[in-house]
Amino acid sequence: MSFRKLLFAVAALAVAIALTGCPGPGDPAPRADEVRVTPATATVERGQTQQFDAEVLPANVSQAVSWSISDVSVDGVTVTISPDGLLSVVGGPGGAFSFDVVATATGTDVSGTARVNVPLMVALPDTPPRSVNVSPGTAAIRPGESRQFEATVLPTAASDDVEWSIDGDEPRGATISAAGLFTLPATATIGDRFTVRATATGTTIAGTATVTVSAFPPEDVIIATVPPGVTTVTRGGEPVQFSATVLPATAAQAVRWVVSPSGAGTFSAAGAFTIAPTVAHDAEVTITAVPTIASSVVSNPITLSVIVNTTAVTITSPPTELARGAEHTFAATVTPAGAPPVVWSVTPAAAGTFEGNVFTVSDTVALGEITITATSGGVSDSVEVEVYNAPTGVEITTPAANVLQITRGVPMQFVGNSLPVAYAADWPIVFSASANAGTFDDQNRFTVNPALPHGDPITITASVVGRPTVNATREFTVNVPVTGVRISPEQVNFTQGVAGEIRLTRSLYPTGANSAGVAWGPWVLAANAPPGVTINQNGDLTVTAAVPLDATFNVTTSITAPIQASHTATVRVVEPGQASFRLEFVGFADAAAGVGFMYPVFVIGTPGAFIEADNLPPGATVRWYVGTRDVGVGPSLEITTYVYENRFGDLDLTMVVTLQDGRRYSQRVTITVYLNYP
Q1: Can you say whether the dihedral through the CA atoms of 361, 364, 368, 372 is positive or negative?
Q2: Residue at 12 is within a domain
Q3: Is residue 9 domain-resident?
């Protein structure tokens, strides 16, 4: 900044400090005091750019600036700056120099500068040539004609100057200009060859092209086999020799051989064709020839059929036996790959039929051995196969086909046999059921797993013993008819003087019974229920604190369809501390884990399962009943023995608690017992 501008700025600052208050409506607009340029200094090499930014102070004035540079007078260097402050330095090698970048606040003479230093650039030595390419690489030229050649020197940084010449001490009248124009004399001899050379100036690095003298362009090509009439080629055998004649006779005779499909074989320089080792027997290849200097002229085609001689045939993984009427797919490997396909046959011919490699055994063939043969190109392999009687299927005759349900708890008889019936005695069958569906006894009577609910699917399979893939299946669903209803819990104790509520639940009996068409009756309180006791139709039983001690009454629910049945729960009001004992189950299945029954579930085979009375009052005794049988006194009951007596189904257990004062209470529970089928 000049001294005059600095003095002016100091004076303006002093005036601003002396003034008080804010500028009024008539005060002049704020003016720019300073321009700051960043970066303040920069080093920019030739060929690079640098972005500059300007800030006008104070911040409440316009930030618009104009960019300029101080005078730069360096030969071969151009320095420019864009309206946005982007500086560019362009130029070749030379010495170092410096200049200023100036940013001036628009409409003012307030400016700021940055210093730019351009370092020395040293000129690099010339890049030497490494190679020269001449194009076209080959050319056919008639006498008296010319052809322009071009040379490319690599690398591209090297000088592209070349010197053109023709190899040989006697170019036979041919000439080439300094620009690469090659000219043949009118007396040039047909078939003569010339080498055109381009040499990088001042070096021995050169590239060449070949010129062939051709009086007339090729018009046609005629090819033939030697000897004529050959139509096949043997893979791995002798090559097939070809000859080619280019017309007119004065045209160049060199040709390029073409085989179709591509890659099906190779040609020697003398025109001998060898078929590729991957081409299959009976494949066809087509041979043509194209003049090397006239690719648009194509010869007559010659087609050869490929012969592949088989050296070995092996039948793979043959069966040792086949049943009458059976079907089997045979396979064989042939060496070499691509040899003639296998032809299958059987001896005796009446033993069966082949469709391709699929063999069907005759139903009437004599039992015993037959011979299967695979033949390729005159080479064979054979195996012996034993023919036997075998079942072709299974039929389930009982129950009838229109029986689609099996009733839980009612064994169903199954009867079936293998097919054909004539051999059924030789091939007995065995029945099985889908997993966890139920069991068959030794008389083929099937009993449904008592844990399965109504509607569950069951698959029954009848299989030939020893041949499980020969089978028949029938699909059924479980039928569980309704025989009654249950209330849970069956006994409810309320503490005297304490209001309480419990939701009673009702379910069909047996567990998993068919719920379709069931008509539920209402919840009914017995007539002797004291005041303060209510139940709604959701089963919510409410007892107020006013209900007297030892009040005992019943709650009943029922169904009216498909049968008429009812069940009753007993409600008692007892002294405080006497209503909290309950049944606990140890070693039982988790109903939430997929069993889904109302009652505890015991899986046969579970050791050490027992039921116990929990939270008994002091001095109380417990007596246990299985059904109506008294099985002893104690705080718990090991039930495995009784479960096995019942086998599976529903088992009723009752706990009778006798208090010290002689009062008795009981709770009953139904346990569902089932087999855990694999």
Answers
A1: negative
A2: no
A3: no
